[in-house]
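[Discussion] Sanity-checking designs against the backbone

I'm trying to build intuition for which residues belong where. Below is a C-alpha cell string of 438 positions. I'd appreciate it if someone posts a full sequence so I can compare it with mine line by line.
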C-alpha cells in the first residue's frame, strides 16, 4: 500500500542521467503513490541526454495514463528519450538556457536508422505532443531531419520566420532552446528554479513529497547497467569454464551460477527478459552441467550449452522492441564481456596456480625415486593379459583382470561395459586396452 500523503500534495520525481529499463518501474510507483493520495501535481524534474526508447515509451504511457496534472520541469536538458517524456506531460517549464529535442534514432555506426525505426519514433513524439496540444510537426522534426517546416509566426513585437530556426530547414534536426520552445508553444513558461516553480504553482514546500528510488530499484538499475552487466556475464562464464575444467561441482560453478542468476533476475524484473529467454538460458545451463557432471571433457553438449547461454544473454540486453542503438549497446556489452572474461580468467588462473591452497591440492614439486616415489605400479607384467570391462570406457574406465579391478583407458575406441579386452600397454598408473576380437 503506497504511503498516505497530505491532500493537495505534490509529488516530485527526479529523472536524471540515462533513461534505462530500470526507470519505468520507479516512475510507475511514483504515479501510483500520487494517485492513491489525490496529489494535485506530479512534477518530473528532468535532466537527461536520453537513453532507451522502449523505457521512455513505458514512462510516457504511465504519464499519459494518469488523471493527475503532470509537469515536466526541464532543468538543463531533455534530449532524445527525455524529449519524449517531456512532451507527454500536461505542462512544460524550462530553466533559462535549457534545451529540448534531438530525438532521432541511429544505428550501430551512428548513422540514421531505417525508415521503419524513424517512423516509429516520429509517431511516438508526434502523438505525445498532439495529446497535450503542442505542434505535431515540430515534434516530428525533432526525430526526422528530412522534415521541413515553413511558417511565419508573430510573437509579441517579434516576427519569427522558419529560416530563423536551424532545425526547420531540411537536413537539420530540431533542438530548441528555452526561448524558442516558449515562442513555438512547445514549453509553457520559463522558471529559474524548482523553488520558484513551487511559488508559481502556489505550492508550499512542506507539501512536496520527493519519491526517491528504493534500494531494490537502485540495485536492479545497477545490475542492468550496460557498464556493469558485462562484468556479471564475465564472472558467470568464467565460473562455469573453471568448473568444466575441474572435477565435480564446487565454488567456481556456484559463483558462476550466482552471477548469471543476478544478471537474468535483474533483467527479468525490468522486462528485458521473458519466458523464452529463461527457457533458453536454463537449457544452456543444463547442457553445461551435463558436460560437467556426466560427460568427460568438453564436447558438443558444452559448446551448445555455452552458445545457448550467450544467445539468451544477448537477447536480454536488447529487450523486446530493440532500436539500432540498443543493438549497439548489446554488442558493446558482449565485447566487453569477452574481453573481461579472458582477462579476468587469466588473472584468476595465474593467482590460483601460485597460491598455497593450489599447491596443496595439486603438488607441483618433483617426487624422486630416492624418496620412494615411482610412476609405474608394475603393470607391465599385465601386457597381453585378457580381462573384462566393468564400466564403459570413453576412453577411460575400469577393467577386471584375474579378479582385480584396474584403471584403464581404451586405445581410442568406445568400449561398452562387459566387453572382453586385452592389455596392449601401460600409461603410468593405468592400463591401455583394446577389444579382444578373438
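Best answer:
Here's mine. Compare freely.
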Amino acid at each position: 500500500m503506497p504511503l498516505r500523503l497530505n491532500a493537495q500534495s505534490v509529488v516530485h520525481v527526479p529523472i536524471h542521467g540515462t533513461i534505462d529499463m530500470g526507470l519505468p518501474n520507479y516512475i510507475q510507483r511514483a504515479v501510483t503513490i500520487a494517485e492513491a493520495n489525490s496529489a494535485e501535481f506530479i512534477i518530473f524534474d528532468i535532466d537527461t541526454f536520453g537513453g532507451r526508447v522502449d523505457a521512455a515509451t513505458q514512462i510516457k504511457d504511465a504519464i499519459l495514463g494518469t488523471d493527475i496534472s503532470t509537469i515536466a520541469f526541464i532543468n538543463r536538458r531533455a534530449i532524445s528519450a527525455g524529449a519524449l517524456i517531456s512532451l507527454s506531460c500536461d505542462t512544460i517549464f524550462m530553466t533559462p538556457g535549457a534545451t529540448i529535442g534531438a530525438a532521432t534514432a541511429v544505428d550501430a555506426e551512428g548513422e540514421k536508422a531505417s525508415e521503419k525505426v524513424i517512423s516509429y519514433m516520429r509517431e511516438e513524439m508526434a502523438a505525445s505532443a498532439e495529446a497535450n496540444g503542442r505542434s505535431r510537426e515540430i515534434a516530428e522534426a525533432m526525430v526526422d531531419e528530412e522534415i521541413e517546416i515553413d511558417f511565419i509566426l508573430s510573437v509579441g513585437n517579434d516576427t519569427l520566420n522558419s529560416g530563423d530556426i536551424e532545425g526547420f530547414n531540411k537536413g537539420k534536426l530540431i533542438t530548441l532552446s528555452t526561448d524558442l520552445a516558449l515562442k513555438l508553444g512547445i514549453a509553457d513558461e520559463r522558471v529559474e528554479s524548482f523553488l520558484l516553480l513551487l511559488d508559481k504553482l502556489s505550492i508550499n514546500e512542506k507539501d512536496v513529497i520527493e519519491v526517491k528510488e528504493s534500494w531494490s530499484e537502485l540495485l536492479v538499475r545497477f545490475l542492468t547497467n550496460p557498464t556493469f552487466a558485462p562484468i556479471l556475464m564475465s564472472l558467470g562464464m568464467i565460473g562455469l569454464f573453471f568448473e568444466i575444467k575441474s572435477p565435480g561441482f564446487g565454488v567456481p560453478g556456484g559463483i558462476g551460477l550466482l552471477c548469471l542468476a543476478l544478471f537474468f533476475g535483474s533483467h527479468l524484473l525490468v522486462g528485458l527478459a521473458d519466458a523464452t529467454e529463461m527457457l533458453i538460458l536454463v537449457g544452456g545451463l543444463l547442457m553445461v552441467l551435463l558436460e560437467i557432471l556426466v560427460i568427460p571433457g568438453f564436447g558438443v553438449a558444452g559448446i551448445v550449452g555455452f552458445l545457448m547461454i550467450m544467445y539468451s544473454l544477448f537477447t536480454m540486453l536488447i529487450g523486446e522492441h530493440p532500436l539500432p542503438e540498443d543493438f549497439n549497446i548489446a554488442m558493446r556489452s558482449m565485447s566487453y564481456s569477452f574481453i573481461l572474461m579472458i582477462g579476468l580468467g587469466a588473472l584468476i588462473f595465474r593467482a590460483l596456480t601460485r597460491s598455497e591452497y593450489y599447491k596443496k591440492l595439486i603438488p607441483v614439486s618433483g617426487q624422486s625415486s630416492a624418496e620412494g616415489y615411482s610412476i609405474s605400479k608394475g603393470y607391465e607384467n599385465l601386457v597381453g593379459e585378457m580381462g573384462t570391462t566393468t564400466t564403459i570406457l570413453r576412453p577411460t574406465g575400469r577393467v577386471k583382470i584375474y579378479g582385480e579391478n584396474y584403471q584403464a583407458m581404451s586405445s581410442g575406441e568406445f568400449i561398452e561395459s562387459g566387453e572382453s579386452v586385452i592389455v596392449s600397454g601401460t600409461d603410468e598408473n593405468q592400463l591401455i586396452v583394446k577389444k579382444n576380437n578373438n
